[in-house]
Amino acid sequence: MRLDRSAGAVFILPAVLVILIFSIFPLLASLYVSLTRLSFSEGGIHLTFVGLGNYAKLVIGIDRTHFIGVTVPLTPLTAAVLFVVYGGFAFLLVRYLRGPGRTVLGFVGRLVTAVSAGALVWLVVDTVMTSGRPGTLVVTLIYVGVDVSVQYLLALGLALLVVQRLPGRRFFRVVFLLPMMITPVGVAYLFRMLTDTSKGPLYPLWAHFGLTDVSWVTNPWGARLAVMIGDVWQWTPFIFIVLLASIESLPVELNEAAVVDGANRWQMFWAVTFPQILPATSTVVLIRLIEAFKIVDLPNVLTNGGPGTATESLTLHAYTIWRALDIGGSAAVAYMLLIVVTFVGISYVNLFRRRVTAMA
Amino acid sequence: MAATRARRHRSYAINRPSPAGTIVSYALLVAWAVVVLFPLYWLAVTSLKTPLDVNGGPFYFPFRDFKPTLESWRYIFVDLGEDTFRPYLNTVVVGLTSTTITLLLGSMAAYGLVRMQYRVRFAAIASFVAGLVAAVAVIAAGGPWQLALLGGFALFLLLLQTVARRFKRALGNDDIAFWMISQRMLPPVAVVIPIYIFFQQLSLLDTWAALIISYVAAHLPIVVWLMRDYFQSVPLELEESAAIDGASRYRIFRSIVLPLAVPGLVATFLFVLVFAWNEYLIALFLTSANAQTLPLTVAAQNATRGPQWWYMSVLILIMIGPVIAMAIALERFIARGLLVGAVKG
Question: Where are the domains of chain A?
Fold first, then answer.
């Protein structure tokens, strides 16, 4: 193939420059702000350099219960769960060491991933499955884990249903996209209307169970569930349309060959369709992972982060202390989020996506 | 053309479910459609209620449960009038312009990342960081930012041309792509103040340009990532035969790759448009009276007297109208068969 050398630069440089110019300044500025404390003095505002003070406050200081949560000593249940999870990690590491493609760098990377993931798992288990209380970090992890997996499964199922040659499928395709088109703030208010136990449309249901006086907002898991249902409702269409476009652009020849070989629909899906949409899957899941970590409107409008801080996500955490003019602390929370997302993103790309794209 | 039709017919036969499968499929489809449509129905009936009806408990059907009124619609279109139409125009202009630019720049970059090999040397990145540190140091010391950026850039070029040439280790296409998507990891709340200062320095606050530039930068990574997968599925044979016929890279991209990636382009266009259309936080900071967009108008209905559900419902409904029209118009491009038959022959 003919190679015009300048073409490469022409194709990629505009995008790179726009992203570079636009990302570097905010990144550096908020890093600097996260190391300072804002104070009002005579003649305006003043930023005092406090080093890692804002971070220390979150991890070991007075904001620990808010950010990390209330941790308690191990109980038999948590110990058992952690034993199983860590055993799984150890098994995977040993398998990697025995496998053919092992490298020192690869092992170190996996070890770091396993240790960090282990710490996060401990945090989730220890604050959720005990008398402890999850902080904003754990709540965000729960949102991301539950939302993205439920959205993916739903979206895949729906996409497979509407690629079938059924009359009226175009109607369903457009209808299924609708939730994504509403502005996130609007969705949050819409769900506040729907979940109202005395004036909302589900009133008969609440009345039937005698729940009209008990506001679900006072129950931490009820409130979290409401937030997650809203998020699933809104963002399933995003994964749906990507998977749909991906399935629709697959060549039919492979499916025909499978039919000739006598494959049933189930086998056809697992052996033909699914492997081919894996690259698109891995992309859309990565994008959704990153976006899901930044969930803010639903908990903010629906529950205001309550009861207490039970539904508060990291971004909402950053937002509330930002409104309280603790700009430095807010930037520190944002950077913590950045660190967690970067860790999750890099692990995901290295352990999952690279393998998937190499296969395709 | 006849061959294409025959192939479509074959795919039709493969994807047609059995009678039992049809019933189950319809049951599931209708179930999810109800889940999706019921909240929207509730918006529609709420927009026809008086505040009294909304607060009086759940009323489901107009005429039977309550007397519908167009009072809220009148308020939004007549009383607010200009305050509805101006944000509307802003949303349309900013949404369409930023989406078009993003899609153009993003698909070019995505194509580059799929079909060409890039190597960004570590030494080049180090030179860039050195130039950046120098510029930041000058600004921190109180120097003018224009001069500092110029000096930093000069240092970067100098290092690039001298020291950086000696080292060979480099980053590849995947690393560039990951760097791009990593730009979406910082939550908006941490980004808005720097962006505000950025546009203040350029005196672009409260203009279309500020929003368009922000949205292009914010949504480029998503376009690059999604379009990469769609371009990957364009058969290499087609591009190769075009290249043998003497077509340039640009020609191949415009006349072969883009038309074949239409399903992906359409899907990507739709949700980049949706993102730009609905973005709230950046718009809140960068705009005031002139360039304000509709999400701000929606949020503004949460007044001191509590959320004005009836006005909010009207606004949300008129906001999604055009996007739904767009989705209906574009949906048929997301259909199988565009690629079929292109490779053979």
Answer: 54-71+132-359
Tell me which CATH code domain A54-71+132-359 carries.
Answer: 1.10.3720.10
Domains of chain B, with CATH numbers?
18-69 (no CATH), 80-118+183-345 (1.10.3720.10), 119-171 (no CATH)
The ipTM estimated for the assembled molecules is: 0.85
Which residue is it, tokens 């759940």? B58
**Interchain contact, B118 vs A12, CB within 8 Å:** yes
Q: Assess B339–A contact: CB distance below 8 Å, yes or no.
A: yes
- Global confidence as pTM: 0.87
Residues of B in contact with A166 (CB under 8 A): 17, 22, 25-26, 29
Residue B189 to residue A318, Cβ atoms within 8 A: yes
Per DSSP, helices labelled H in chain A are: 5-34, 53-59, 64-67, 76-98, 104-128, 136-163, 169-181, 184-194, 203-208, 220-248, 252-260, 265-268, 274-293, 297-298, 314-323, 327-348, 354-359
Spell out the per-residue pLDDT of chain A, length 360, in tens. 445 567 788 888 899 999 988 888 888 888 888 898 887 777 677 778 888 888 988 888 888 888 888 888 888 888 999 999 999 999 999 988 888 878 888 888 889 889 999 999 998 888 888 888 888 999 999 999 999 999 999 999 999 998 888 888 888 988 998 999 898 888 998 988 888 777 778 777 777 776 666 666 678 888 899 899 999 999 999 999 888 888 887 777 777 788 888 778 788 888 888 888 888 888 899 999 999 999 988 898 888 887 888 889 999 998 888 888 888 888 999 999 999 999 999 889 888 877 776 655
Chain B nearest-CA distance from A123, in A, is 22
The answer to whether residue B43 neighbours chain A at the CB level (below 8 Å) is yes
How many CB atoms lie under 10 A from the CB of residue B67?
12
